[in-house]
Amino acid sequence: MQAIKILEQFHISATKKPVSIYPYSPVYHVHYEGEDVIVKKTQKTLERARALAAYTQFLQENGVLVVSPIKMDVDNPQEIGPDCYVVYPFIKGEKYRASNEQIYTAGALLGKIHALSPAKDPYLLSSYNVYDFTNEEVEESVQSIAKHAQTNHVSLNIAVLKEKLLSCVSMQTELRQLSLPHVLTPHDYKANNLVYTPEPYLIDPDNAARVPRIFDLALALLLFHNEMNTAPDIVFTLEQWNAFLAGYYNYVQLTDLEKQSWDIALKHVFLDEVMWLMAEVPEVWEKQSQRKLFLSVVDLFLESKAYQL
């Protein structure tokens, strides 16, 4: 749907067609009643979008710095065409610069969010249930990754990567049967979704779901620096990972089962999140920083023993 029509549905006037500030999804930085706001696609259906709004409001009421839909003279969020859209406040602040203090406070914010998670989900967010990867899917994805790597002159040990990914497929049933603690969480916790004010402020909670707690930590380890031009083009160093965990542990005590299951969980999250990104989004390979990050993430995936909980 045209951007102008989306804005009109929220009674936001625009003299010219806005341009998305994010290349992979509509995210518009515009003005509403004298204030800067963000209009973006959110979860669908409308029922899920409203559930997400209720969840972010709950987090705000409990002291979490996170955006939540602003009050308007029309419904917010709204279903517009086949998708749902929401209007958030625009948060002014500093970008992530990978200082240990920024990383520590980012870990603390995620820990606070996890600690607030209710035992039962009153918001009925979607629950993680991605344990159905097949060997065929892995083989197809690895072929795509090999093609992207060759096109962009990146040297990857494709045979070893494939072998490791196939071993992850065989571990899915075991992982699914574990009684891992689950939490409600934004589940896309990375640097480009934070603004420092100077405390970290979460500006994109739209992937919120109920997921195994250590899956969320694994995603942060693997992709915290993804798509962030002020971040290093490698995964966390061990020092940075320990700083992140130090902040996180101010609020959360992980179980022995979680610590014992960390390696298998980390590899599964790579299978679910990173394999897809490397295989299905060829345009990200065009950026040198992303190519370097991919190499770093693959190295961690192949040898992750140093990165413990």
TrEMBL record:
Whether Transferase counts among this entry's keywords is: yes
Q: Which domain of life is it from?
A: Bacteria
Q: Which Pfam families did the record assign?
A: APH (PF01636)
In terms of SUPFAM superfamilies, this protein maps to: Protein kinase-like (PK-like) (SSF56112)
Aminoglycoside phosphotransferase domain residues: 26-226
UniProt GO molecular function: kinase activity
Q: Which UniProt keywords apply?
A: Kinase, Transferase
| Gene3D superfamilies membership | 3.90.1200.10
Q: Does the keyword Glycoprotein apply?
A: no
Q: What is this protein called?
A: Serine kinase
Q: Which organism is it from?
A: Virgibacillus pantothenticus
